[in-house]
Amino acid sequence: MDLYGFSAAALMADVLLAGQLAGAEVTLAAPRVNGIDFSLAAMFLRATTTVQIVMVMLLVASFWSWAVIVEKVLVFSRLSGKSGKFEDQFWSGKPLDELFGRVGESPQTPIERIFSAGMTEWRRSLREEGGLIPGTQARVDRAMNVAIAREAEQANKRLSYLATVGSVSPFVGLFGTVWGIKHAFQSIAMQQSTNLAVVAPGIAEALLATALGLAAAIPAVVAYNRLSSDAERLTGGLENFADEFSTILGRQIDRQSAGQSAGQNGAQNGGEQ
Questions:
Q1: Under 8 Å CB-to-CB from 219, ≥6 apart: which residues?
Q2: Domain span at 190
Q3: Which of 62, 101, 150, 212 is the most buried (most CB within 10 A)?
């Protein structure tokens, strides 16, 4: 478990377990029964064109779901490690200007971009004579809030795809099953036979569509729930950091304002004397 509570290993274990549960009844090869091949490839080739299209759609959806899952797990794990290192540097007591010089204008992680947004606005608010433009605190807070909103949007990017696959895939698979069973009944009517050997292949092909729908949906739902939680945790961590950073800058603003007021009062008193 890392700084923001991300655990790539735990997420992958959950998703892989979900995939195993979804595909537990699906085998890559099946024995022949009464001369009929019930392997996955054979059932796919025997299926109607409509059911084949449904199966291909589900396979493509499942492939892209796993691509999104792997990408998000790697990104969250990498960002979490780098963010932890930056926070250690931030709280080490080093001057903020020195840390900002290291980060530069090309920050690599979300927390660095929040820090860079705040420091950039802070520097823009400095007057040439050393004072601060009025309203600096509010502008710094707005700049960091905008940066947080961008990072939250980036963290949740493509998660809606997982939600769509998780909610729609079972119904797409069910559509393929209904269509396949309809075809099986048509075969019964055409052959004038209710023999199980006539019905079984069509029903097996139809049920394969449901199995593929579940195999696509279950990992997508598990990953969506976990990744959404990680994205919210990341956003919450950024908001907490922004609040702490704003507090630090606020103290410096108050000190400078107090110094300016003292200087002005001293000048006035000297003039009166």
A1: 15, 16, 18, 19, 22, 62, 65, 66, 69
A2: 8-257
A3: 212
